[in-house]
Specification:
The chain is built from five helices and nine strands, in the order αββββαβαβαβββα. It is globular and about 40 Å long. Strands 4, 5, 6, 7, 8 and 9 form a six-stranded mixed β-sheet that branches. It is α+β, with helices and mostly antiparallel strands and about 200 residues long. α3 links the parallel β5 and β6. It has a single domain, classed as Glutaredoxin, CATH 3.40.30.
């Protein structure tokens, strides 16, 4: 029995050590000056440029940039999609909302049919691509977010800098991200403050 246990442990150790190197996710964070072009599920394009410590939209540098990392399977993401669309429409001249999905391997047709149409999410939702992961990695490294991203996950940038936004759990306004379901009223209040600063 001890022999069998020893062999089993050896197999586990060898298996873990050889596959561990292959499965460790490598960061694809953008370096200063690099850009990625995003194509939305309907074919529009936006270029996001890496600047020192943050990100800007090329040609829309004066706009507040909101990244929403979501999943089509995520119930809170579905519930807030329509409210986010209304927010995008209300602040169309001051804000760009970009939805990023990279936790699932779905094409644009699936996103349109299972998320955008049924939940009125007609803001800029980027097609799945390596750029989505690069942006998510850049964001989490920039704000020093060390945990696994929980959905939905949002950050707000102005002039290429991450903005302080409300921590919905403690009510403080010195957080760099929203996590989970967040009231549109909270997001709009933060957005109004950011636009005035």
């Amino acid at each position: 029995m001890r022999y069998l246990t020893a062999v089993f442990c050896l197999v586990l150790m060898l298996g873990c050590s050889s596959s561990k190197e292959e499965t460790i996710p490598q960061s694809s964070a953008l370096k200063a000056g690099e850009s990625v072009e995003l194509t939305n599920v309907y074919g529009g394009k936006i270029t996001i440029k890496r600047v020192e410590g943050g990100l800007v939209q090329e040609g829309g540098e004066d706009k507040v940039l909101v990244f929403d990392i979501f999943g089509t399977f995520c119930e809170p993401c579905k519930k807030e999609a329509g409210a986010l669309m209304n927010l995008q429409l209300k602040y169309i001249s001051n804000m760009t909302l970009i939805g990023l999905s990279y936790f699932e391997d779905v094409d644009e047709k699936y996103i349109i049919e299972n998320f955008a149409k049924p939940y009125n999410a007609h803001y800029f939702i980027a097609k799945n691509s390596p750029a989505n992961k690069a942006l998510a990695d850049t964001i989490t490294e920039d704000i020093k977010y060390k945990s696994l991203i929980s959905l939905p996950f949002k950050v707000v940038l102005k002039d290429g800098k991450y903005q302080n936004i409300t921590d919905i759990w403690e009510g403080k306004t010195d957080n760099k991200y929203y996590i989970g379901a967040v009231s549109t009223a909270v997001v709009e209040k933060d957005l109004e403050r950011i636009l005035k600063e």
